[in-house]
Amino acid sequence: MTKVHEDRPVLPTQQDEVAAAGSELIGGPFGRHARLGGHWLTPVRVVVLVALGMFALGMVQKVPCYDWAWFRGAGSQYTHACYSDIPHLYVVRGFADGLTPYWDRLPGDMEYLEYPVLTGLFMQIASWMTPGSGSMQHREQMYWMVNAGMLMVCAAVIAVCVARTHRRRPWDALLLALAPAFALTATINWDLLALALTAVAMLMWSRGRTVVFGVFVGLATAAKLYPVLLLGVLFVLCLRAGKWRAFGGAAVGAAGAWLVVNLPVMLFAWDGWKKFYTFSQERPIDFGSVWLLISQRSGNPLTGANTYATVLTLLLCAGIALLTLKAPRRPRFAQLAFLVVAAFILANKVYSPQYVLWLIPLAALARPRWRDFLIWQAGEVLYFLGIWFYLAYTTSGDKHQGLPVEGYQLAIALHLLATLYLCAVVVRDILLPERDVVRRDGSDDPSGGVLDGARDVFTLSNAARAPHDATPPEAQRVEWGTGPRH
């Protein structure tokens, strides 16, 4: 089979029924010769503008808390579903008092800041930019606003990188830009920093910059632990394709970047540096996790949940590795990245509402279909509301205003099932590559860097062949109905 090459970007409105139906609100699908706003309004710029608009709407959603609810007891910030860690940690993690993260001990049981080094630096920079005068309430407000501005830059970086990762499918990034869970959770915590670095890494990998990919994975891992999982994905794919030089460059780049960031703190503030890792190990089961659901339903405290979560994560990753080596075609990098990060979250002791941010860019690249994406987002939005109303119920005393425990358990189950649903359709695409919308034009892995078009050298099936040899005949169909092109 001959891979179809086409300069024109793939238009979701001409290959996705939900996108086509939704486009009727703005005049219907693009015509074959339509142009978008001249030379300036490119797909990438449209995606960025939409993402920033949604981010701004997410900030507006936090206005009740910004004005008063963060400062008048716990219940109001939950009933208005506008909670954020940022203003609270400004005070309780010592930034308001000028304490230096990792070096200075905190009052209370926490002892040191429980975040990775690069996130701690991000928090510290924001505190330096926060005015030190005025009431504490005003300073907390300004700290949240400064962080929101910095996180908005991260959101723009993520939107640009996702839109450019697949050269012919920039419009898939609208899934990210319009994701309601992205807007609602973007300023709960500092996850967008690691997300931006991971998005840059994915873009660099798609361009064949393997060492630079590794550097950004290392930096992202210095901000949040989960990006290191991408190296595991790369290992299995390189095992199947025999691309060990690429994996070696990525691994060395990641290790070097991580050490550059972490080593100074490890050498001079060891107790503060290790707090993130000891806290992660000792943390009990918490909100949103399958373990909390089991514990609440059974009455068992699950004191061994750390072991259970670790074992389940390893089993799921082993299953994904087996899937990779037995699939009829080598899975796309984004597909496996989504599955591995989803497995890590699903098996974790905690599934905080902002963890959905880790998956949204990967989902847009792994399964760019609006119906499945919106089903998943519906489950996450329901959980976003469920956790805050449940916390409102637990903090309202005898009034019992909010969502009782049974309702919260249902919300947990729905958001876990929604994530599992999206995982299932990605696995189906891997097992039935003709169902993969990205490959319908005869492509192999357009955002897969050096793996794109590589021949298999090791599999556990009869699929050791060049990727285009496995392309089904119907893949030559061009989605906007003009017939095959070569």
UniProtKB/TrEMBL annotation:
> Disordered: where is this region?
466-486
Could you list this entry's UniProt keywords, alphabetically sorted: Cell membrane, Membrane, Transferase, Transmembrane, Transmembrane helix
Q: What is its main location?
A: membrane
The subcellular localization recorded is: Cell membrane
**Any Pfam family:** GT87
According to Swiss-Prot or TrEMBL, what is its membrane topology?
Answer: Multi-pass membrane protein
Q: Where are the transmembrane segments?
A: 40-60, 142-163, 175-205, 211-239, 246-270, 305-325, 337-361, 373-393, 405-427
List the InterPro entries hit by this protein, alphabetically: GT87, UCP010361
Entry annotated with the keyword Hydrolase: no
The UniProt entry's sequence similarity note says: Belongs to the glycosyltransferase 87 family.
Give the protein name, as stated in the record: Membrane protein
Q: Which organism is it from?
A: Streptomyces cirratus
